[in-house]
Amino acid sequence: MDFDQAYWSEIYPKSPFYLFISQDESLREIYEQGIKIPDIFPINSVGIATGDDKSFVGFSETDLRKRILAQNLKFDDSLCHRFAYRPFDYRFLYFDPKLLERARENIMRHMFSHNIGLCTSKGIEIKREWHHVLCADAPINLHNVSMKEGNYLFPLYLYNNPGKNKPNKNQNNHLFVKEPQAQYNERRENFAPKFRSFIDQKYSHHYEPEEILGYIYAVLHSPTYRQKYAEFLKIDFPRIPFVDDPETFEKLAALGWQLVQAHLLKDIPDTFKVEVIKGGDKVEKPVYAASQQRLFFNNEQYFAPVPEDVWNFHIGGYQVLDKYLKARKGRELSLDEKENIINVVKVLRFTINRMQEIDEIWRP
Prior knowledge:
Elements: H1 25-31, E1 35-36, H2 37-40, E2 45-46, H3 53-56, E3 57-58, H4 61-69, E4 80-86, E5 89-94, H5 105-108, E6 117-121, E7 133-136, E8 151-155, E9 157-159, E10 166-167, E11 184-185, E12 187-189, H6 193-203, H7 209-220, H8 223-228, H9 230-233, E13 239-240, H10 246-263, E14 275-276, E15 287-289, E16 294-296, E17 302-304, H11 308-311, E18 314-315, E19 318-319, H12 320-326, H13 335-361
Parallel strand pairs: 10-11
Antiparallel strand pairs: 1-13, 2-8, 3-5, 4-5, 6-7, 6-8, 9-12, 14-17, 15-16, 16-17, 18-19
C-alpha cells in the first residue's frame, strides 16, 4: 500500500502527554476525575539505587557483613537495614549514603521508624497488564516492583526526626502495638492538605490514614479498574476514584487493609497447608508441575500444593515465585526462606480471592 492509499485517522493530542495515539476521550474524562497518587502523598521518591547491589545488599545480616568486609570497609551495625528488594523478598542494605549511588536519604529515612509505604510506578513500559502496586515497611529498591520502570515509594507517615527515635506513644497507632516508654519521635500523615480536606468533607468523617491507604490499595487491586483504565495506567501515575457511599468506602478500606497486612507478611492467611519436601535445599531451577501443583526448585525438592494461578501471579514485571527462587540459584534455601515461600503462596492465594471480592463490592 502506498502513502496515498493508506488509511488515516485524525487525532487530537492533548496536554500533558500529547500522545500520537487515539484514546477513549469520554473514558479519559471519567478517569481524570480521580486523584493522582502524588497529589495524595506529596512527599515521595523513587527507590534506592545502590550502584552495586552485590556489594551493598545481602540475603542476611551475616551475608551483608561479609560483603562489606570483603571491600576492606569497616562494618557499622547501625547502617544495616531491612530492604524491600523485590516482591516479598526483603534483604539487608548497607545504608551509607556516601557509598550508595542514590540513597534517597530524605525520603527513605522515614521508613526506618514504624511506617508503611505504597509502591507503584509512573506508567509502565512492559506489554503485560498493569499490576504495578505493592506496599513495604522498609526502604525500597529502585526496581522493587518492576525492572523496566523506576518504582516510587509513597510513605504513609512522615517523622520529624526520620530514622532516629521511636514513634510517639501517645499517638493513635493503628499499625503497631504501642511500645514501652522511650524517647518518641513525632509523626504526621503524609497527605496533601487539599486531599485531607476533600476526604473529610466528602464523607463527613475523619478517616484514619490506614483506612484511606486500605481504600486506595483496594482500588488498585480491582481487576475491573485495571482493565477499564489500562490505557491510562500505562502512561502516568494511577488516579484514584472515590466512591460517594461511605459504606462502600469502608468495605473497600477493610478489604484493602487486609491485603496490606498480608502483603507485609504480618497477617498470614491460614486457609490451606503448604509443605516443602526435605532434601539438600539447593536451588537449581524453578520448575512448575501443573498437574501435581508442585513447585520444584531442584530434582527432588518441591513446595506443594501451589495452585496454578498462584504460580502465574505477577506483581509489576515479576512472576513472584519464579523470581524469588531464580534470585537464589546456586544457594541453599534457609529455613526462613522456605517459610517465606510457604507464606507467599498463602498470601497470593488470599490476594486472588480478595481481588474478586473487591470487584463484587465495587466496579468503576
